[in-house]
């Protein structure tokens, strides 16, 4: 990152991005405390459903309804967002937070690399592939639950599709695409949560922690990112966001006591480096 990439006054928006990452991953760590009561499907329903409600109240997108031609793109955007949340919370239930997020970020990394035709970008693919290989040992005590890995890989695929569908839906004015997309995601995910947890979702303690998860994981980070993006170059934004797996691993350790081995930290570092490198050279 050269001097040309750093604009005057960029410190505050950069700190806002880091605060968004911390908030998002503390929210994910808090969500794991709800798994025994309502399961991962129930937590997803709470996070997405309450986030949709908060966004609809804050943005009031119904004042300008989307055109009929925009509805298919919004529906795809919302379903992809819902699937991504369902899958990553299933992964969180089975494998450590940092490892799940490290696997998940290979989705947007793949989008960046596949959209490039420069041979040097293959180095980032090799770096990420090595990180994944180190995360997925074939034997030994460090073996990960294969179901958790599969869910995280599914979330990675959904994140890649989310970028594509989100770009198509972003033609809507203001932040209305996010609000309508989150509503579509809620309509998709809430039935899974209700089918799994039922009336347990309405318990005051569950609703209270679910609201905290929605605020920490969606409302606050989305707001901080919107403010930061107005003043940060997109490349700098990508480099900062690439630290998400490391932040998730730290949140998992501090909030949940999840301890990773040296090899797993090395693997996460390789995936972070691949994501940051692809963003820097995109």
Question: How does this model look, in words?
Answer:
With 282 residues, the protein is mainly alpha-helical. It has one domain (11-105, 142-232, 243-259). It is 76% helix and 0% strand. The chain is built from twelve helices and no strands. The chain has helices at residues 11-32, 35-59, 71-92, 97-104, 106-114, 122-135, 146-169, 176-197, 204-229, 234-241, 244-256, 262-281. Helix 4 (97-104) packs antiparallel against helix 11 (244-256) and helix 4 runs parallel beside helix 12 (262-281). The protein is globular, with a radius of gyration of 18 Å. 48% of the residues are buried. Residues 1-6 have low confidence and may be disordered.
Keywords:
single chain; 12 helices; 282 residues; 76% helix
Summarize the structure.
The protein has 282 residues and is mainly α. Helices cover 76% and strands 0% of the residues. It has helices at 11-32, 35-59, 71-92, 97-104, 106-114, 122-135, 146-169, 176-197, 204-229, 234-241, 244-256, 262-281.
What is the percent of helical residues? over 70%
What structural category do the secondary elements indicate?
Answer: mainly alpha
Major sheet size, sense and barrel closure: none
What would you call the shape? globular
- Whole-number radius of gyration? 18 Å
β-strand number: 0
**Average predicted confidence as pLDDT:** 83
Please trace the helix and strand order, writing H or E for each element.
Answer: HHHHHHHHHHHH
Number of helices: 12
Oligomeric status of the shown chains? single chain
Beta strand %: under 5%
Ranges where pLDDT stays below 50 over 5 or more residues in a row are 1-6
Query: What distance separates the N and C termini?
Result: 12 Å
- Overall structural domain count: 1
